[in-house]
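Reopening this ticket.

The earlier resolution said the output was attached, but the attachment link was broken on my side. Pasting everything inline this time so it's all in one place.
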Amino acid sequence: VVNDEELKKRIAEELALERARRDSEAQKRRLKQEQMYVRDEFGKLLEQERISSNEHLTRAILRERAATEEERQKAQRFAKQLEEKDRELKKHDAYYKEQLARLEERSAQFYKVTTEQYQKAADEVSARFKRYESHPICADLQDKILQCYQQHTQETLSCSALASQYLRCVNHAKQ
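Inline output:
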Protein backbone atom coordinates (compact mmCIF):
# COMPACT_ATOMS: atom_id res chain seq x y z
CA VAL A 1 0.00 0.00 0.00
CA VAL A 2 2.89 2.15 0.55
CA ASN A 3 3.77 2.04 -3.04
CA ASP A 4 0.36 3.05 -4.03
CA GLU A 5 0.33 5.88 -1.68
CA GLU A 6 3.72 6.91 -2.68
CA LEU A 7 2.73 6.65 -6.22
CA LYS A 8 -0.39 8.67 -5.59
CA LYS A 9 1.69 11.18 -3.78
CA ARG A 10 4.16 11.35 -6.60
CA ILE A 11 1.41 11.62 -9.15
CA ALA A 12 -0.20 14.31 -7.06
CA GLU A 13 3.13 16.12 -6.85
CA GLU A 14 3.72 15.73 -10.55
CA LEU A 15 0.22 16.94 -11.21
CA ALA A 16 0.85 19.90 -8.93
CA LEU A 17 4.14 20.56 -10.71
CA GLU A 18 2.39 20.21 -14.07
CA ARG A 19 -0.34 22.60 -12.94
CA ALA A 20 2.29 25.00 -11.57
CA ARG A 21 4.17 24.78 -14.89
CA ARG A 22 0.94 25.38 -16.85
CA ASP A 23 0.00 28.19 -14.49
CA SER A 24 3.49 29.62 -14.92
CA GLU A 25 3.24 29.37 -18.70
CA ALA A 26 -0.24 30.86 -18.60
CA GLN A 27 1.14 33.67 -16.42
CA LYS A 28 4.01 34.15 -18.85
CA ARG A 29 1.53 34.34 -21.74
CA ARG A 30 -0.68 36.79 -19.80
CA LEU A 31 2.39 38.83 -18.90
CA LYS A 32 3.50 38.79 -22.52
CA GLN A 33 0.00 39.78 -23.62
CA GLU A 34 -0.08 42.55 -21.03
CA GLN A 35 3.35 43.73 -22.18
CA MET A 36 2.14 43.70 -25.79
CA TYR A 37 -1.01 45.55 -24.73
CA VAL A 38 1.03 48.12 -22.77
CA ARG A 39 3.48 48.46 -25.69
CA ASP A 40 0.56 48.89 -28.13
CA GLU A 41 -1.15 51.43 -25.87
CA PHE A 42 2.13 53.27 -25.32
CA GLY A 43 2.73 53.21 -29.10
CA LYS A 44 -0.76 54.59 -29.66
CA LEU A 45 -0.15 57.34 -27.10
CA LEU A 46 3.18 58.20 -28.72
CA GLU A 47 1.55 58.24 -32.16
CA GLN A 48 -1.25 60.50 -30.89
CA GLU A 49 1.31 62.77 -29.25
CA ARG A 50 3.34 62.89 -32.49
CA ILE A 51 0.21 63.67 -34.52
CA SER A 52 -0.86 66.34 -32.03
CA SER A 53 2.63 67.83 -32.05
CA ASN A 54 2.68 67.82 -35.87
CA GLU A 55 -0.75 69.50 -35.92
CA HIS A 56 0.47 72.21 -33.52
CA LEU A 57 3.57 72.69 -35.61
CA THR A 58 1.54 72.80 -38.81
CA ARG A 59 -0.87 75.35 -37.31
CA ALA A 60 2.05 77.45 -36.09
CA ILE A 61 3.65 77.32 -39.54
CA LEU A 62 0.35 78.27 -41.18
CA ARG A 63 -0.13 81.17 -38.73
CA GLU A 64 3.40 82.36 -39.44
CA ARG A 65 2.87 82.10 -43.20
CA ALA A 66 -0.41 84.01 -42.90
CA ALA A 67 1.27 86.71 -40.82
CA THR A 68 4.15 86.91 -43.30
CA GLU A 69 1.74 87.15 -46.23
CA GLU A 70 -0.24 89.85 -44.42
CA GLU A 71 2.96 91.82 -43.77
CA ARG A 72 3.99 91.42 -47.41
CA GLN A 73 0.61 92.69 -48.60
CA LYS A 74 0.75 95.56 -46.13
CA ALA A 75 4.24 96.46 -47.41
CA GLN A 76 2.94 96.36 -51.00
CA ARG A 77 0.03 98.65 -50.07
CA PHE A 78 2.39 101.09 -48.39
CA ALA A 79 4.72 100.98 -51.40
CA LYS A 80 1.80 101.75 -53.74
CA GLN A 81 0.64 104.58 -51.47
CA LEU A 82 4.16 105.96 -51.40
CA GLU A 83 4.42 105.79 -55.19
CA GLU A 84 1.06 107.54 -55.50
CA LYS A 85 2.17 110.30 -53.11
CA ASP A 86 5.43 110.64 -55.04
CA ARG A 87 3.54 110.99 -58.34
CA GLU A 88 1.22 113.52 -56.73
CA LEU A 89 4.15 115.53 -55.38
CA LYS A 90 5.87 115.50 -58.78
CA LYS A 91 2.64 116.66 -60.40
CA HIS A 92 2.32 119.50 -57.87
CA ASP A 93 5.98 120.37 -58.32
CA ALA A 94 5.58 120.61 -62.10
CA TYR A 95 2.41 122.70 -61.69
CA TYR A 96 4.09 125.14 -59.30
CA LYS A 97 7.19 125.41 -61.49
CA GLU A 98 4.93 126.21 -64.44
CA GLN A 99 3.07 128.82 -62.38
CA LEU A 100 6.36 130.33 -61.21
CA ALA A 101 7.63 130.53 -64.81
CA ARG A 102 4.38 132.26 -65.85
CA LEU A 103 4.65 134.72 -62.97
CA GLU A 104 8.29 135.45 -63.79
CA GLU A 105 7.37 135.99 -67.45
CA ARG A 106 4.49 138.31 -66.50
CA SER A 107 6.73 140.14 -64.07
CA ALA A 108 9.38 140.61 -66.77
CA GLN A 109 6.72 141.84 -69.23
CA PHE A 110 5.26 144.18 -66.59
CA TYR A 111 8.75 145.50 -65.80
CA LYS A 112 9.47 146.03 -69.49
CA VAL A 113 6.14 147.82 -70.07
CA THR A 114 6.55 149.89 -66.92
CA THR A 115 10.10 150.84 -67.85
CA GLU A 116 9.00 151.79 -71.37
CA GLN A 117 6.08 153.83 -70.02
CA TYR A 118 8.35 155.55 -67.51
CA GLN A 119 10.91 156.38 -70.19
CA LYS A 120 8.17 157.61 -72.52
CA ALA A 121 6.67 159.79 -69.76
CA ALA A 122 10.12 161.11 -68.86
CA ASP A 123 10.80 161.92 -72.53
CA GLU A 124 7.41 163.68 -72.81
CA VAL A 125 8.08 165.72 -69.69
CA SER A 126 11.54 166.61 -70.95
CA ALA A 127 10.09 167.60 -74.34
CA ARG A 128 7.32 169.70 -72.79
CA PHE A 129 9.38 171.52 -70.29
CA LYS A 130 12.70 173.00 -71.20
CA ARG A 131 15.30 172.76 -68.64
CA TYR A 132 16.37 175.96 -67.12
CA GLU A 133 19.83 176.19 -65.90
CA SER A 134 20.25 178.47 -62.99
CA HIS A 135 23.52 180.20 -62.48
CA PRO A 136 24.15 182.46 -59.59
CA ILE A 137 23.73 185.97 -60.82
CA CYS A 138 26.17 188.66 -59.95
CA ALA A 139 28.30 186.11 -58.09
CA ASP A 140 31.45 188.19 -58.25
CA LEU A 141 29.67 191.21 -56.68
CA GLN A 142 28.15 188.95 -54.01
CA ASP A 143 31.63 187.69 -53.06
CA LYS A 144 32.98 191.27 -52.92
CA ILE A 145 30.12 192.39 -50.62
CA LEU A 146 30.76 189.46 -48.24
CA GLN A 147 34.47 190.26 -48.09
CA CYS A 148 33.71 193.92 -47.47
CA TYR A 149 31.31 193.15 -44.61
CA GLN A 150 33.88 190.78 -43.09
CA GLN A 151 36.62 193.37 -43.32
CA HIS A 152 34.46 196.27 -42.04
CA THR A 153 32.34 194.62 -39.35
CA GLN A 154 31.92 197.91 -37.49
CA GLU A 155 31.60 200.15 -40.58
CA THR A 156 28.96 198.50 -42.75
CA LEU A 157 28.07 201.73 -44.54
CA SER A 158 31.44 201.74 -46.26
CA CYS A 159 30.15 198.74 -48.31
CA SER A 160 26.96 200.52 -49.43
CA ALA A 161 28.35 201.40 -52.87
CA LEU A 162 29.00 197.72 -53.55
CA ALA A 163 25.50 196.86 -52.24
CA SER A 164 23.89 199.37 -54.59
CA GLN A 165 25.87 198.05 -57.50
CA TYR A 166 24.75 194.46 -56.54
CA LEU A 167 21.06 195.52 -56.42
CA ARG A 168 21.30 197.10 -59.87
CA CYS A 169 22.89 193.91 -61.22
CA VAL A 170 20.08 191.73 -59.69
CA ASN A 171 17.32 194.02 -61.06
CA HIS A 172 18.93 194.00 -64.48
CA ALA A 173 19.04 190.12 -64.39
CA LYS A 174 15.34 189.97 -63.43
CA GLN A 175 14.38 191.91 -66.53
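Reporter confirms the inline version is readable. Residues 137 and 170 are 7 Å apart (CA to CA). The radius of gyration is 68 Å.
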